[in-house]
Every structure is written in C-alpha cells, then in structure tokens.
C-alpha cells in the first residue's frame, strides 16, 4: 500500500478528509475512492462482493445482500448479509494476521471496553 497522506478534497460543497493509510490496496487516489463509492450506491451487491473477497471463507457466499423493507407484511424488515457463506471470524480477525507476520502474536489483538464501567 502506498504511504499515508492527508489532504482535503472538496466535492459537491463537502470537504472530505483523505487518509489513504486505512483504505484497501485498490484505492490509490481520491478518484479511486469516488469510483468505489459510486459503485457502492449504484450496485451494492457487487461492491460488497468485492469487499467479501478480502476475507478468507470456507464457502464464499452467493447471496451477498438480502433485504426486505415492507412494513405491511408479517416479516416487516429483514436484513441478511452473506447468508449462505461460511466463515471463521476468529481466523479473519487474528490468525491470518499472525500467519502473515508472526511478530503480530506479541501485539494486543482485542481490547474489551465494557458499556458499563462495572463490567
């Protein structure tokens, strides 16, 4: 990934902070970001399928986004993501990073912050 840079870009009378350090590798320029944002609005299934490809799956989902927003039906609102996929969340959050960089095992992986200070 390219090095981090922060600049302000003005589009549509909005100012956007631009920091590439936390973005996926396919985003090198602000135009790349705008292209992917447009895809997320115009074809959310394709956008989220691309995002899902960044994870390791036992079974890659064929059903990416399944939403129902009909308050007149008994089901009402129903939202399902990657419903027929099979994934190991722990592997994706921790293990694959340790495989890539064994020294990562020495770093803090998860910090628990309770909702209530007494927890």
Automatic annotation (TrEMBL):
One of its GO terms (cellular component) is cytosol. Residues 33-93 form the Acetyl-coenzyme A synthetase N-terminal domain. InterPro entries: ACAS_N, ANL_N_sf. One of its GO terms (biological process) is acetyl-CoA biosynthetic process. Residues 1-16 have a biased composition (Low complexity). One of its GO terms (molecular function) is acetate-CoA ligase activity. Residues 1-21 are annotated as: Disordered. This is Acetyl-coenzyme A synthetase N-terminal domain-containing protein. It comes from Rotaria magnacalcarata.
